[in-house]
Design goal:
Elements (H helix, E strand, L loop, with lengths): L2 H23 L8 E2 L8 E2 L8 E8 L3 H16 L3 E9 L2 H11 L5 E4 L4 H5 L7 E5 L5 E6 L5 H23 L1
Parallel strand pairs: 3-4, 4-5
Antiparallel strand pairs: 1-2, 3-6, 6-7
């Protein structure tokens, strides 16, 4: 066997070893339940919401005009009902701009935090801002809605459609 063959075998074995190691020893799932707060409050533990009550994760970037447009509707949705928790997660932006947007422009009263390392965003395959991820009270991921939602009614409607679709599919599968 020549030197190139030996080198190729070593690279292949190293790649297989790394793949096996990351499969069995990857601890990244620990990072997808905590969302940092930059306003001095305690981090948000998503496990306290997902699987405990109906939840919507709203992923946004700062700056993002569509996100800014939708924020009043998020606030209105939260004020109109208490059954569904909405948590906004900023996955892109500068800390100073984010804080200014949420505290001064949006006057956000709901839970919001920052995913600076994009652990949570990557876990849910978020690449577009805004994106909404819907969960039922048991923690089942009902679906994802990328792009803007224009009214609080539409947000509720999108959630209910995802909820019904998910649970109707489960009933059909059990028949």
């Amino acid at each position: 066997m020549n030197k190139i063959g030996v080198i190729l075998i070593v690279f292949i074995l190293a790649g297989m070893g790394y793949t096996a190691y990351s499969f069995f020893f990857n601890n990244s799932s620990e990072n997808v339940t905590i969302v940092d707060r930059i306003n001095g409050e305690e981090p948000i533990n998503l496990e306290n919401y997902i699987g405990q009550k109906k939840t919507i994760l709203q992923f946004v970037a700062v700056p993002c005009e569509c996100c800014s447009y939708s924020m009043p509707f998020i606030q209105e949705f939260i004020e109109k009902q208490s059954e569904i928790e909405v948590i906004t997660i900023v996955f892109y932006g500068k800390e100073r701009e984010i804080l200014d947007k949420f505290e001064n422009e949006y006057n956000a009263t709901h839970l919001w935090g920052v995913d600076a390392k994009r652990d949570v965003a990557n876990y849910y395959n978020i690449s577009v801002s805004p994106t909404y991820v819907f969960f039922d009270e048991k923690g089942n991921k009902l679906g994802t809605h990328p792009y803007i939602i224009a009214t609080s009614e539409e947000l509720g409607q999108r959630y209910e459609e995802a909820y019904e679709s998910y649970h109707n599919e489960r009933e059909t599968d059990n028949e």
